Amino acid sequence: MIEIVFFSTNRSKIAHFRYLGEKVGLRVKGFHETTYYASYNEPKIDDRSELLKLSYESALEQWLKRQGANADDHSTFFFEDTSVVIEALSKDTEVPGVNVKYWMRDMTFEKLDTLLKRAGNNRKVTVRSDIVMHLPQRWRALLNTADRYLSVFGESHGVIADFERKIQPNLVYPWLDDKTFNKWFVPVGASGPISMLDIKEADLSDFRARAFEKITSVLHGKLSFLANRDEPDADQLQIPGIATYPSIFVICGPSCAGKSTTANWMRDKYELLHIEASDFMYKAFWERHGPNPGVSIGNFAEAALQTQPGIVAQPIAHFLREIGTSGAVVTGFRSTKEVEIFQQEVGSDIELALMYLDASAPIRLKRALERGRDGVTPEKFAKRDEQEIRMGVSDIAKLPNVGWQANEGSLRELYGAIRTRYRKALRVYASDKERRAQRQQLYRDQLEGLILRTLLAELPTKKWLTTTEIAAALNLRFNEAKSKNNVSRYFNQEFHPYYELRFRERDGKRTGILEYRLSATGISRAMQMHAAPEVRQNRRRRVKRTENTQLALALPPPEF
Asked: Which residue, of 212, 228, 244, is where some domain finishes?
């Protein structure tokens, strides 16, 4: 998959281009996910050509500061500038033109409506997206150009709305918001402002998509050699010689059916990597709304699965291919579409076992109440069940080749049934631990590996740690000299599925300082890093102590 870097500090725009990239097989990363330097300076001038040129020079300066930049002739960055031309107001110059984001700060619909009516009520408008992409030297040779960058644009035409609508926040596609000109822009043939349209209709008038298509045609055309660069082998999830045995176990079922408990048993017993879908849902949530959202993760997840069912299935499949694991168990999918997309993404060459755990509602409720987590009550539990049914979790049990398994007795009975069902495969995993463990030796001493192992060692303390505290604990445990700035940079550049995060509280009040601990996915990944002996001992004691309990979902109950 080609990876390109997007220069922007606007979370909604980054989410927009990630969405566009995923549709055509491009991985779009924000600049801060690649380096910790500042974004580019955008001059406040009316000349579009000069603005783009000066913006490129500023962005290039920041790009060249990053590590390894001088030797890098295989990657690129791009930035985007949105402009608006209101026909009735653009007599001598474009209004508001390239300065639309500044113009919007002082503009209201009432004020704009009055200006338009004074000018004869011509409400025609053009929204334009300009994209500038850096061309490394090697790319210029392939494209037979001396230009340092490629500049393209896309346009959408329409009118300004006759009256102002109330725009509801779009949880999954935040660029369709009530803060930009989108809230007033009615594309040709549309029933309302683009911010009110469903995503399929909005895509038809997406001015950024029209510009981005011209970029992707170049990347997939003359630069198509990039598509296969650093791609892992298609069969790297398989264990050689046992192609008929599952490489990935997918465990689904309703809340408190025993999915996480079973996955953690398979993780501890057979050292399979446990991936919790909720951890990737949180990542998608934070990427769109930040760590301090005003919306519910449960409502976001439900909306996401309705409109973008591959929102976590695709990233999990890509993640498994990137890390090259030879055995994994995935929990948390809540719809048949998720499962189907995941199966398609991992490929037909990967053997996948689909399991559906089930138990009666009274038994599951009893388990939830015994745990006493998330302030669960019978009413909240019933509403969570209803929401998961709406998402489609119960339909997974009807899929072909699903292994349905009741879990209403003891854990010994559950584990025995699973061992019987997958006896041959689990025997292979039990005897294959050492070879799979050797694959983690190089990774374990990289910064991410050290952070994971540090937080794994801190698990028994149940503490949440800030980046400064993580750096101190890491250096003490491994006799390293990692700067706290390096650790902060790691967390600030990207949201990771390995960690849960929250704001630290002091004297009962929330501060602006984030603190972290391992998620279910992070715990499993850290265990692959060959934690220190004393941590392994703590892990064994912890597993024994919790043998007769089942873990709560990582995804908290929605707010009702």
From this structure: 228
Q: Which residues contact 464 (CB under 8 A, 6 or more apart)?
A: 502, 504, 515, 516, 517
Alpha helices in 258-377 (DSSP H): 259-270, 277-289, 297-307, 313-323, 336-346, 361-371
pTM of the predicted structure, to 2 decimals: 0.81
- Single-letter code of the amino acid located at 237: L
Angle of CA points 196, 200, 206, to nearest 5°: 75
Claim to verify: residue 402 and residue 259 sit in the same structural domain:
yes
The confidence score (pLDDT) of residue 475 equals: 95
- Name the pLDDT band for 69 (thresholds 50, 70, 90): low
pLDDT digits (tens, 9 = 90+) for 185-220: 999 999 999 999 999 999 999 999 999 999 998 888
Same domain, 457 and 475: yes
557: in domain: no
The alpha carbons of the chain give a radius of gyration, in whole angstroms, of: 26
Strand 124-134, strand 77-86: pairing: antiparallel
Confidence of residue 34 (pLDDT cuts 50, 70, 90): low
Number of domains into which the chain is organized: 3
Contact 288, 298 (CB under 8 A): no
pLDDT of residue 234: 37
How much is the average pLDDT of 133-144? 90
Residue 559 domain-assigned?
Answer: no
Amino acid in the structure at residue 252? C
Domain boundary among 169, 195, 228: 228
> Measured between alpha carbons, how far is 542 from 536 in angstroms, rounded to an integer?
10
Nearest Cα to Cα of residue 160 among 205, 194, 128: 194
Cα 28 to Cα 308: distance, rounded to the nearest angstrom: 17
The per-residue pLDDT for 541 is: 42
pLDDT confidence bin for 72, thresholds 50/70/90 = low
Same domain, 451 and 480: yes
Q: Within a domain: residue 370? A: yes
Q: Considering the domain boundaries, does residue 558 fall inside one?
A: no
Residue 34, classed as helix, strand or coil, is: coil
Claim to verify: residue 159 and residue 282 sit in the same structural domain: no
Residue-range definition of the domain harbouring residue 512: 441-529
Alpha-carbon span 156 to 264, nearest angstrom: 51
Task: Tell me what the pLDDT averaged over the chain comes to.
Answer: 85
- Residue whose entry in the numeric block shows the structure tokens 């393209």: 152
- The reply to whether 326 and 393 lie within a common domain is yes
pLDDT confidence tier of residue 372, bands split at 50, 70 and 90? confident
The answer to whether 258 touches 359, Cβ cutoff 8 Å, is yes
pLDDT at 536 > cutoff 50: no
List own/partner pairs for 230-233 with CB under 8 A and 24 or more apart. 231/1, 232/321, 232/322, 232/324
Residues 404 and 329 both lie in one domain: yes
Looking at 111-115, 137-141, 209-213, which range is the least confident one? 137-141
Question: Both 140 and 270 in a single domain?
Answer: no
Alpha-carbon distance of 347 to 486, in angstroms, equals 37
Q: Residues 258, 285: one domain? A: yes
409: nearest Cα among 333, 353, 357, 369: 357
Domain containing residue 119: CATH number: 3.90.950.10
